Amino acid sequence: MPQEYVEVREGGYYLIDSRVTLDSIVQGFLEGMSPEAIAEDFPTLSLEQVYGAITFYLAHRPEVDASLAATQRQWEDVRRNQSPHSDSLRERLARARTDLSAKRA
């Protein structure tokens, strides 16, 4: 009886009974990490689940790669459309932290 390890949820691939995305596992795999090293990065997953996720990826590579590419495009769009004010906000917050630290010293 085959064991299922991956499900489609909220428009993405997830490991069953987990909040870990398949993207997370695949990214490590594509970077050359061993399944054992990937499992160490995700202590809530068993080694069996990691192997199952990799097997799922290899069996459904075109679909998963398309999903990965779509996610990457979304992140690039978010970064590209990020408000220019967010950088100045970060700078103001950093200055405020520095000023506060100087006052406490």
Structure description:
The chain has 5 helices and 2 strands; from the N terminus they run ββααααα. It is mostly helical and 105 residues long. α2 (35-41) crosses α3 (47-59). The radius of gyration is 20 Å and the shape is elongated. The model has no long low-confidence stretch (mean pLDDT 89). A two-stranded antiparallel sheet has the order 1-2. β1 (6-9) and β2 form a beta hairpin. The longest helix has 20 residues, at 61-80.
Features:
66% helix; single chain; Arc Repressor Mutant, subunit A; elongated; two-stranded antiparallel sheet; mainly alpha; 105 residues; 5 helices
Topology:
Layout: E1 6-9, E2 12-15, H1 22-30, H2 35-41, H3 47-59, H4 61-80, H5 85-104
According to DSSP, the number of beta strands is 2
Largest sheet: 2 strands, antiparallel
Helix content: 55-70%
Query: Into how many domains do the coordinates divide?
Result: 1
Looking at CATH, the homologous superfamily is: Winged helix-like DNA-binding domain superfamily/Winged helix DNA-binding domain
Brief summary of the model shown:
This protein has 105 residues and is mainly α. Helices cover 66% and strands 8% of the residues. The chain has one domain (6-104): Winged helix-like DNA-binding domain superfamily/Winged helix DNA-binding domain (Arc Repressor Mutant, subunit A, Orthogonal Bundle), CATH 1.10.10.10.
